[in-house]
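Case study B.
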Amino acid sequence: MTDSTDTPTTGDARARIRAFLVPHMSGQAITDTDDYFALGYVNSLFAMQLAAFVQEEFGIVLKPEHMDFDNFRTVDGLVRLVGTAA
Amino acid sequence: MTIRTVGVIGAGTIGRGVAQSFAQAGYDVVLVDVSARQLDSATEQIARDLLVLLMLPGAAGRGGGEDPARVLARIRTATTAAALADADFVVENVTEDWAVKRAVYEEIDGVCRPGVVFGVNTSAVPIARVASATGRAPNVLGLHFMNPVPMLDTVEVVRGAATSQDTLDTALALLGALGKTGIVVRDAPGFVTNRVLMPTINEAIFCVQDGVATAEQVDRMFRGCFGHPMGPLQTGDLIGLDTILNSITVLHDSYRDSKYRPAPLLVRMVEAGLLGRKTGRGFYTY
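Model:
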């Protein structure tokens, strides 16, 4: 089990992000660029769960500068967020 | 009475959401919990959820545009009910256990000023029972907030037999100040939300138990045929199957109607520790 405060490699972060997202997508597959909010797989309530996940899984303390919705809408966005904020 | 300070008892999932909602609307909040660790966790989650609100479309309408630090500064935490002496309105969200709730109400009835309204956030305990544990029955009503509190604009408000019109008006106005609408229902076990939702989930579990369909099929049916965002078994896993079992059992005991008898599969799953998201496995694996 990796220590969540290790700086994750991009591939590792992507895998962990996907592992978290997949069960919430109502059985729909998602690409790295699919906007699951726009696609209606999740609603805005899910944003809070995403923020909690990012914090707990990667040890990131979110700040106002991180809070651009584009960082949360896609797998790529989350990978980018984790890369810059870790 | 002008409400400036709101007391929130219980810093669990619902309590922290209630505290956040009031603070966002400009109220001073005293958040009380026996556990300092729960209070720390609550403050941390509120801070994070306020940040999330900053970026969500339409957030400003929900008071989500303000600097999170300013909102947080309105929330004071405490581990004793004595901190509620200055509260103008109290919302109680402790665990759904009458013995625990009764002790809380007996204490705050002595701490809080006369006339301060107690909003009981319960889905299982009759409002009349709570009211009779206090010396202020006309000031007691049910305020059933649901998760996630800051994001939902509707609250089930329960009028007890003794609840005064003044108390009702005060509570509804306060909810209005939060940007929420209270729907007033009468005091009966399960009110509306639990009484309808719990047997729905229970019946969905019977369908799986009896081999009529798989969990995935049941949930897809609700999403695809009814347009529900989430099917009943997903909802059960989200709420917690132990909570579902507890709620349906309370309905069964209250109404003595076999339509509320818990599905044996539900009982077996709870006994096996398969509670849903909170334990990583329920009808789905997380």
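The first strand of chain B starts at residue 5 and ends at 9. The remaining cases will be described in the next quarterly update.
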